[in-house]
Design brief:
With 272 residues, the chain is mainly beta. The protein has one helix and 19 strands.
């Protein structure tokens, strides 16, 4: 009887341990993401992978870089990572390049093996005549060498359009885009508006001095919606607010960009 009791006790312990192992299963941080590109950064023994939530299109895109030691294949958890988006274009035998707004990784330490960053693509690029790439600069923790990698990416056109280029009344060239952290639905939705100013072809600066006035409407139905919260600046050119969609269909979000010197108005159309 005593032996039988010990047997059942051991079975219970093993079963409990097995449940603990199952409960401790670690979710892959890249689950739900798709790999866009990968390449090796020469000179620093590092593999660079680019991941995204979905196919890249014009407008705001959330992306992630993962780094692996190319010898041990272990994730690199600490490094300085800088990304420069570059559009290379050929027109009538002439070659030119320009960049686009890019929110750099905010920390040198990974978030669950990922270095998050964001890009606002101003135009599509997926042909030999117009193509996007990322120039990635990496300095691993504890190393003096700096590695570089070029990741080719294809960017399609968003429809409806999610980014606008605006020349203000003061002559500034702005890039304005919007982003829903969650898919739009009937009711109150979080909305982010991103505003950057073009300094030159390769440099864009975040803009933090606009007062945004948002006016959603359904042009075909002849009405707007109540209880909207105008986006206000948080950091890095991001303005956060809330928009109320009272029904599904075709919506237009009108935005007034106001500061002490000027007022400019744009709009974005969307359907859901």
């Amino acid at each position: 009887m005593k032996k039988l009791y010990i047997f059942f006790l051991l079975c219970s312990i093993l079963t409990a341990c097995k449940k603990d192992v199952i409960n401790q299963t670690v979710t892959d941080p890249k689950a739900g993401l798709q790999k866009i590109s990968e390449v090796y950064a020469l000179g620093i023994s590092t593999k660079v992978e680019l991941w995204a939530e979905k196919d890249l299109t014009t407008g705001h895109n959330q992306l992630f870089v993962t780094l692996y030691d190319s010898v041990s294949n272990q994730p690199i958890t600490k490094a300085l990572v800088k990304i420069l988006p570059v559009m290379d274009m050929e027109m009538n035998g002439m070659y030119m390049s320009h960049s686009t707004p890019c929110l750099q990784p905010e920390s040198s330490e990974v978030e669950n093996t990922l270095f998050p960053f964001a890009v606002v693509f101003t135009m599509p690029g997926n042909t030999d005549q117009s193509k996007w790439s990322f120039d990635v600069t990496i300095k691993r923790d504890g190393q003096n060498k700096i590695g570089t990698a070029k990741l080719a990416v294809a960017v399609g056109a968003s429809s409806p359009e999610r980014v606008k280029m605006l020349t203000t009344t003061q002559g500034e060239k702005l890039v304005v885009s919007y982003y829903f952290p969650n898919p739009p639905k009937i009711g109150i939705n979080d909305l982010e508006v991103i505003i950057y100013r073009q300094q030159d072809k390769m440099s864009f600066l975040s803009v933090d001095n606009f007062l945004l006035v948002m006016r959603p409407e359904m042009p075909a139905m002849g009405h707007g919606s109540p209880n909207n919260i105008n986006p206000v600046h948080t950091k890095n050119g991001y303005y956060k607010g809330k928009v109320n969609f009272t029904m599904t269909g075709d919506w237009r979000i009108n935005l007034d960009l106001v500061n002490a010197e000027q007022k400019n108005t744009i709009f974005f159309d969307l359907s859901f």
